[in-house]
Amino acid sequence: MAELSRLSLNTITVRDQWSLAQCIEGCVRHGIPGISPWRDKLAQYGLERAVRHIRDAGLRVSGLCRGGMFTLPNAVEENRRAIDEAAALGADCLVMVVGGLVPGSKDLARARDMVAEGLAMILPHARSSGVKLALEPLHPMTCADRSVLSTTAQALDLCDALGPGVGVALDVYHIWWDPEIARSIARAGSRILGFHVCDWLVPTRDTVLDRGMMGDGVIDIRALRAAVEGAGYRGLIEVEVMSDRDWWRRDPDEVLRVMKERFQSAV
Amino acid sequence: MAELSRLSLNTITVRDQWSLAQCIEGCVRHGIPGISPWRDKLAQYGLERAVRHIRDAGLRVSGLCRGGMFTLPNAVEENRRAIDEAAALGADCLVMVVGGLVPGSKDLARARDMVAEGLAMILPHARSSGVKLALEPLHPMTCADRSVLSTTAQALDLCDALGPGVGVALDVYHIWWDPEIARSIARAGSRILGFHVCDWLVPTRDTVLDRGMMGDGVIDIRALRAAVEGAGYRGLIEVEVMSDRDWWRRDPDEVLRVMKERFQSAV
Fold first, then answer.
1. Cβ separation of A141 and B140 shorter than 8 Å?
2. How many CB pairs lie under 8 A apart between chains A and B?
3. Is residue B36 within 8 Å of residue B65, measured between CB atoms?
4. Could you tell me which CATH class the domain B4-197+226-238 is placed in?
5. What CA–CA distance (Å, rounded) separates B197 from B222?
6. Which tens digit of pLDDT belongs to each residue from A99-115?
7. Of B1, B70, B84, B90, which residue has the fewest beta carbons closer than 10 angstroms?
8. What ipTM was reported for this prediction?
């Protein structure tokens, strides 16, 4: 059973219902010690106000969502801003969703090169800002339009090539199916910068927005938590549920209550 | 450009519209030299009548779809019947979709063991019947309910463990995203028993039934064909499009016409 002292709310779990200010207050009200904001909510609130509010609330920032998207225009500039925001927030990492194919292209190798090149270009700024970049391998079903980084092994190869300051964010939703996952988690070791949980529903009715709450699907979340902790991870555990058919339609206070229960019973 | 002499119709491409007899006649009418029947259509027609009709039509059978499903009850018995049918048809292989998690279970390791055990149990019958078993790695998004065999490397590890008589069927839809695919195809070599084509649509609106016709999506099909041919594959190339929103609603003669055009322009 996961300790509540490890819990962090990824704000997309209540995307449509709450502003960032409401998310912060919700965490305080429900005794949730961590938060991981998305940049759109952060922009709406204003960085300085958000930093002050989060600090005054005594919350820890497990990550900022998200940098990446290196196959779209202006990625480097945009990522530098994201790094500055992560630094201001004192975030444990900046989560990187690296981007899919260049729109209109079928060239997967080129897209992967663009990701490596983009990361190399922003890494000096991340290092000098004290912000760790957490490469998040995304489920292969997102390869075309969100992430050409599909496996943990592939992410670690990229970490090896880039050097210090880069690690991985592992989300059970994206990695649970991987026949190499036990080996990859062991290999990742201290490079695991974030661990995200939700669940895989059967059937899955949408490739992006049909994630389940922990315990409602088929992922052996406890086994994966044991593996990342076996590799040395001691950080916060983010709950990140994207669910336009279910959880996004519920009262956010109910979502946070259930999330806490499931964190203790299914994580 | 792929030669039409390599083309095979996987009958699910016209699932709702045509019986197996109509598929056979359609192939003859359109000059398509190969066919890959599904077992439900085969059962409706009757095995002996189907064998005679296919032989009289001069068609080659690139594969029988499908064996597998080792995590469901009675799998071994059912697979022995499938082997007998593949033998009667003189099919180049029996395509194996190995099965997902045991319903109600989260134990992925156990499901994978059941697959390996089930294959080992039917392999002697396949060998003595002269039927090659083609393990088909399926896209990771099908891991829960269709196939715990998710990558070509994993399939080849299983081939290594099982010995002669087992190879792989590679479908571009399932493998295109894989960062290891070039290495795995080279490793597969003469164990490539089948090659299937269709396309990955953006967006993909269903995890099973929203495949595109070659050329309508983002897969670099030519590059993958070059890779499997570089590994020595000279067999038929099956077109397998599952599409309840588009191709299954069209006139099958139109589907076959477009399929032939696209086979030459996009494969």
1. yes
2. 73
3. yes
4. alpha beta
5. 10
6. 999 999 999 999 999 99
7. B1
8. 0.96
